[in-house]
Specification:
This protein is mostly helical. The protein is 73% helix and 1% strand. It has 20 helices and two strands.
């Protein structure tokens, strides 16, 4: 009943307007290669602080779902993924475009993305509340081990080398210690600066590290999408009932993969789509069709991309642990609204949980209509000059970081981390472990200290509680597996 009430409450002009704005902005960000959903969310969050939580999350949820979906547009039309999650979409999508079937490919991208989004939302609705009841039984030792597990997963699959991922994860942990100690209130690494007593502003840091740094990187390396030839033959073939029947069962299976991978801390749409596509190809009766314009192969990649969102939300809402960098930003947004993600959210802020679920449904319905009617028009986004995009992002970065607390110090923090992010990108150091380390440090430190207090200074909580042992075991295994894979890959390259 509460779910129905939440859904009805969202059907008002104000919320729908903000949701539409989010969907439009997401379609622009996703279509243009070089701009990511993470960047868009990071830039938009400061602007949502002026709104109520429902309207703010309407924009964020709309942008997130839309950006992941529209990342497939450039992947299909110009063989360049708009977002990392659309990497696998290029394989069959662009082949269909070359065959004069761009319209059909874009329709499959829209329908598949919406199916994945709605299916994962359904799983979120069914399992989120029961899982939250389980996590209510978690104590400080369990949350400490969970935080460690989330961090090690990000380090293990953070890209590049394990050493670089580990370095960035530790850096994030150290930066997060700046400010006042959570237990005794003592100042740490503030150097007498009153602006640092509360620590580094998370959102300002995100805007710089994930938003402005990307633009600076494009300018520095000349890696940009440029002005491309968009004289594409769309064709007249549309998606129909026979095609829907053909892709339905593979889409269901791919949604399941996306949800599971999305629920794993640090895993994202790119990893999920690679796993899903690879498994589907192995199990297919016609594997030779994959990569050559397969409708099923295209549908699988598109469905998986958006089903990850529901899985990531399960982890974020029930455990308070980000499934990826986007949910890390959303956790920051929730905290700014005075809401702490995790099991307690389902009892103290159940209405907001239902609202987020309903926004997922409405966002995907809007994307379905918008995508089927406006995709051809959206392809014109690819003609936008790179200089206009760069200038817009720089302006939003400056305004957004200042608007957080009307503080020039936050602007300086944003600029500092944009430079650090640029250096990291140039040297191929992943930013994901850094962001997650920053976010998880308070959880790890606070619950470690509480565990010590509860065990009277003894470390036996590390091995005396089954769930704690399980998460810590998974942490060790994930790092060991990553080390083995890295060593094997180095031997192969020799």
């Amino acid at each position: 009943m509460e779910f129905i009430n939440a859904l009805i409450s969202l059907i008002n002009p104000s919320v729908l307007m903000f949701l539409l704005v989010g969907v439009f902005l997401g379609s622009l960000i996703g279509t243009l290669p070089g701009l990511t959903a993470t960047m868009g969310i990071a830039l938009l969050v400061p602007l949502t602080f002026w709104l109520d939580s429902t309207s703010g999350f309407a924009m964020l949820i709309g942008l997130w779902n839309s950006a992941i979906w529209s990342g497939g547009i450039s992947a299909i039309l110009i063989n360049t993924p708009g977002t990392p999650a659309s990497i696998m979409t290029t394989l069959d999508g662009y082949e269909l475009t070359k065959k004069g079937k761009a319209r059909l490919a874009l329709d499959i991208n829209t329908v598949g993305s919406v199916f994945g989004g709605l299916f994962s939302t359904l799983i979120l609705i069914i399992f989120a509340f029961p899982l939250s009841k389980v996590t209510l039984k978690f104590g400080p030792p369990e949350y400490f081990s969970l935080g460690v597990f989330g961090l090690t997963m990000m380090i293990a699959i953070g890209g590049t080398t394990l050493a670089k991922s580990l370095t960035m994860g530790i850096a994030g942990l150290l930066i997060a210690t700046i400010g006042s100690d959570a237990v005794v209130g003592a100042q740490r690494f503030t150097f007498g600066n009153i602006n640092l007593i509360q620590g580094i502003n998370f959102i300002a840091m995100l805007i710089g590290a994930l938003g402005l740094s990307e633009i600076l990187y494009q300018i520095a390396t000349r890696e940009f999408f440029g002005n491309r030839d968009t004289n594409i033959k769309f064709g007249d073939e549309k998606i129909n009932l026979s095609i829907l029947k053909k892709i339905f069962l593979p889409s269901v299976a791919s949604s399941g993969v996306g949800i599971i991978v999305g629920a794993i801390p640090a895993a994202g749409g790119d990893i999920a789509s690679i796993i899903s596509y690879g498994q589907a190809k192995k199990l297919s009766k016609n594997p030779q069709e994959y990569g050559k314009g397969s409708l099923v192969g295209l549908a699988i990649s598109c469905v998986t991309n958006n089903s990850v969102i529901g899985g990531a939300l399960i982890t974020m809402l029930t455990l308070g642990i980000p499934g990826d960098t986007v949910t890390a930003i959303l956790i920051g947004a929730l905290i700014s609204y005075g809401v702490q993600p995790g099991a307690q959210m389902f009892t103290n802020n159940a209405a907001l949980v239902y609202t987020i679920m309903c926004l997922m449904i409405l966002a995907n319905i809007i994307i379905l209509i918008y995508g089927l009617l406006m995709t051809r028009v959206m392809s014109k986004f690819l003609k936008l000059k790179k200089e206009y995009i760069w200038a817009s992002v720089i302006v939003f970065s400056l305004i957004g970081s200042y608007a957080l607390q009307y503080s020039l110090f936050d602007v300086s923090i944003m600029l500092l981390f944009s430079l650090l992010g640029l250096i990291a990108k140039i040297n191929d150091y992943p930013l994901g472990p850094f962001i997650l380390g920053f976010l998880l440090e308070p959880i790890i430190e606070a619950n470690f200290n509480r565990s010590l207090v509860l065990s009277y200074g003894s470390m036996n909580f590390l091995w005396s509680r089954p769930i704690t042992v399980l998460f810590l075991g998974f942490s060790i295994i994930s790092v060991l597996i990553s080390m083995v894979i890295e060593i094997r890959n180095k031997k192969r390259n020799i």
